[in-house]
Amino acid sequence: MHKSKARITAIGSYVPEKIVTNKDLEKIVETNDEWIVKRTGIKERRMTKEDEHTSDLSYMAVKNLMEKYNKSVEDVDMMIVCTLTPDFKTPSVASIVQAKLGIKNAGAIDLNAACAGFTYGLYMANGLITSGLNKKILVIGAETLSKITDFEDRTTCILFGDGAGAALVEYDEEQPSFISSYLGSEGEKGKHLYCSNLSNQMFGEDIMNTNYIVQNGREVYKWAVTTVPKGMQAVLNNGSTLINEVDWFVPHSANLRMIESICERSEFPIEKTLHSLVDCGNTSSATIPLSLTKGVNDGKLKYGDKVLLYGFGGGLTHAGLLINWTI
């Protein structure tokens, strides 16, 4: 990574009001609270109303960011919304949020890297600002996964929730946030986690044509616990940093057992890990910004901390960033 000229200056989040507990799910599918907690660590998740969409959650996350840090977004010149659950195929969520915020001179794109979306979004923002193409970028990770979840499938409906997080990234040559990165993809394993409404084939193989998320949990788990520790080490190597110099590890909040395995394999203390899954479930691209916001609110994450972010999921894609916490 070239010497960064980009700084994360604010962060915010939003989750819908409606809470769905494990007890609530017991009434819908054959499951129970003890089984869900033991296997995933999740106790509850948030769910949007029928008329509440990804753009609404995104907008509220930005409003939260503005209020918490007294920030204006009128002069934002690029908006990147990371999501796999856009309101429409077109226009983009970014365009809808740009209109709601009244930002006049901003580019607007959606980025779909599934659960790695937010780390990819930050990576892009750093690149655009460091290259001199942009000065001030909003990166939003937002999902309404409840709208593509099959609530008759007990293996997936216990996992997913809705939420959004936003970060403001600005030009700052003196105090940049970004230290190093590492990105990857294993597209041949994409069939283990997908949602299709257009094709019933992938690489010539028949797949279930459904509007709902389909996941081979065992295969995704195996992939994550081997891929992420290697990726973490690659990020650290690229940043000439030792693992014991990292203050906080913020992985995608997929499953607590998965995070425990990743920490064990990478020899990183679980106590120095930030996640958002207990109360929010797996919110795909929103998990990392939700975790960061929670870390700030809980008084854990502090200015000057060295933080390792790692997103991983559908694609199968993954992306890690080592950053200085500059808020």
Shape: globular
Strand order, main sheet: write it out: 1-7-6-4-5
**What's the CATH H-level homologous superfamily of the largest domain?**
Thiolase/Chalcone synthase
Q: Spans of 5+ residues with little confidence (pLDDT < 50)?
A: none
Q: Any idea what the CATH architecture of the largest domain is?
A: 3-Layer(aba) Sandwich
Rg over alpha carbons:
18 Å
Number of helices: 9
Strand content of the residues, in percent? 25-35%
Q: What CATH first level of the largest domain would be assigned? A: Alpha Beta
Main beta sheet? 5 strands, mixed
- Estimate percent helicity: 25-40%
Global mean pLDDT:
90
Number of strands: 15
Give the class from helix and strand content and strand pairing. alpha+beta
Head-to-tail CA distance between termini: 22 Å
Number of domains: 2
Q: At the third CATH level, what is the topology name of the largest domain?
A: Peroxisomal Thiolase, Chain A, domain 1
Can you write the helix and strand succession as a string? EEHHEHEHEHEEEEEEEHEHHHEE
Walkthrough of the structure:
The protein folds into two domains: 6-171, Peroxisomal Thiolase, Chain A, domain 1 (3-Layer(aba) Sandwich), CATH 3.40.47.10; 178-324, Thiolase/Chalcone synthase (Peroxisomal Thiolase, Chain A, domain 1, 3-Layer(aba) Sandwich). The protein is built from nine helices and 15 strands. It has helices at residues 22-26, 33-40, 54-69, 93-101, 117-130, 217-238, 256-266, 277-280, 287-297, and strands at residues 6-14, 18-21, 44-47, 78-82, 107-111, 136-144, 162-171, 178-185, 193-194, 201-202, 205-206, 214-215, 248-251, 306-313, 317-324. The protein is an alpha+beta fold. It starts with 5 loop residues before the first strand and ends with a strand. The strands form five sheets. Strands 1-7-6-4-5 form a five-stranded mixed β-sheet, sandwiched between helices. α3 packs across α4 and α6 (217-238) packs across α7 (256-266). The longest helix is centred in the C-terminal third of the chain and has 22 residues, at 217-238. The radius of gyration is 18 Å and the shape is globular.
